[in-house]
TrEMBL record:
Region forming the signal peptide: 1-20
Family annotation (SUPFAM superfamilies): Metallo-dependent phosphatases (SSF56300), Purple acid phosphatase, N-terminal domain (SSF49363)
Purple acid phosphatase C-terminal domain segment(s): 375-437
Name of the featured protein: Purple acid phosphatase
UniProt keyword list: Glycoprotein, Hydrolase, Signal
PANTHER family: ACID PHOSPHATASE TYPE 7, PURPLE ACID PHOSPHATASE
Similarity comment: Belongs to the metallophosphoesterase superfamily. Purple acid phosphatase family.
InterPro entries assigned: Calcineurin-like_PHP, Metallo-depent_PP-like, MPP_PAP, PAPs_C, PAPs_N, Purple_acid_Pase-like_N
Domain Calcineurin-like phosphoesterase: 143-349
Record EC number: 3.1.3.2
Amino acid sequence: MSVIVQYFVIITHIIIIASAFKISSKSDDISTEIVQTDNKTQPQQIHLSLGDNPTQMVATWSTMSPTDTIVRYGVGQLVTVHMGTMTNFSNGVNHDQYIHSAIMDQLTPNTSYIYQVGSGNPNEMSKIYNFTTTPIGNNWSPRFCVYGDLGFINPQSYSRILSDVNKGMYDMIIHVGDFAYDLDSNFGDMGDKFMRLMEPIAARLPYMTSPGNHENAGNFSNYKNRFRMPNNDNQNMFYSYNVGPIHFISISTEYYFYVNYGLMQLLNQYKWLAEELKTANLPENRAKQPWIIVLGHRPLYCTNSDGNDCGIAADWLRYGVPFIHLLGIEDLLYLNGVDLAIWAHEHTYERMWPVYQEKVVNSSTPGQPYFNPKATVHIVSGSAGCQEDHDEFPQVEKDYSAFHSTDYGYSRMTVYNSTHLYFEQVSDDQKGKIIDQIWLIKTKHGSFLND
C-alpha cells in the first residue's frame, strides 16, 4: 500500500470514528473575575526547565506589559547577565501577556546557583531564587515528583508537594498533562493564577511537562507558549531528554483525539517516536541511559469505569487507528524495551502488572513480577487534585491491574542506578501515607522481543 493511500485510509477512518466517539474536556471553562496585576512589568509565573544540554537551565516568566528580558545568575552572586527573548501572547480580549525566556548556560554540574529575572530595571526584577544543577554523567540517583491533573481549584496535593520541595526531596518535577483547569479559561486568567501558584515550586526545580486534553484550546496554544521544553522543535508537544541513567521521552497522546487540528502532527510524532526509541535502544545508548521512560497524558492501560477512557481511547493509543491498526504506540514500546510508562488523565492512581496486548507478562522469577519483567510497566498518576470528581473503578477488575486507589495524591520516583528503580504513591487524604510502592529491577535492558 502506498504512503498516499495509507494516509487516505487513516484520514477516512479517523473522521468516521471521531464523529461517533466525541472526545472533549471533562468540564466546562470556569468563569472567574480577571485579576489585574498592579505592576504589569513585574515578573510573575517564573518556572525552570532543562536546557538542550546539561550545562543549561531555562527560566521562563510572564509580564503584562513588554519589557526587556534579562536573567542574572551565579554561584553566591549574580555575576553573569544574559539577554533572552520575549513573545507577545494574546489570550483574548484585554489579556495580552508577554512571555519571556532566558538561558543560563555554562553551568557547573552539581552546583547551587542563585538567579533573578526581569527587565534589568531594579524595580522590575523578581525575587532571588536558587536551583541546583544535576551531577554530570549517569552515575547518580535522580529523584522525581510525578503527577498529572493538578488544577488551580482544589489543588489537593499542592501543599504537601511544596513541603517536600522545601525539604529538598526532589531534583525535578514531572507534570504529565492537565494544568490549571484550564490554562485558557477566562481569557487565560486561570492559567496565570495556576502558574503563580506553582512559582514557589517551579522556580526552584526543573518543571517538565506533557500536554493533556485540558490544554487543547487553540491547538494547545497556551501550553505551547507558556512552557519551554528542551529540544523544542515541536513546540513542547513531543521531545526527549536525559537525566542521569534515564532517557525520558514525552509525547502528546492528544494528537490521536484532536485530529481537527490536523493529522500530520500525529504522523510526524509517530515517525519521530519510532526513530527516537530505536536510537535510544541502541546498545551504545542503552549503556549510558539504560532506563527508557515514556511520559504522556492519556493512559494505554487503565481500568476506571469512566466512559471510553479505558476502552476505546486506550485501544486507539495501544493499537492505532481501528480496523487498520496503524500508528499504535504499544508495539513501539515493546520492540524497544521501554521500561516504564507514566500516564495521568484518570483522577486516580493505578499500577499495572507488566502487560502487553492486554495480557500479563510478569517476570519468570516466582513472586517477583517486577524483576526483569517481560513487558513495559504502566502507571497512572492523575490524582493530584482539581475541581473534578475522582474516576471510580469497576467491581470486576482487569487481570493486569495490580493496585489502584481513588485517594488524592502524587508519586515519587527514584532511579538509584542502572538496575534499581523505586516508585511510590503518596496519599494526601491519608496525611502523606505511602499507599503503594514497588521496586522495578532490571539486570538487563532492551527489546522484549528476545524474552
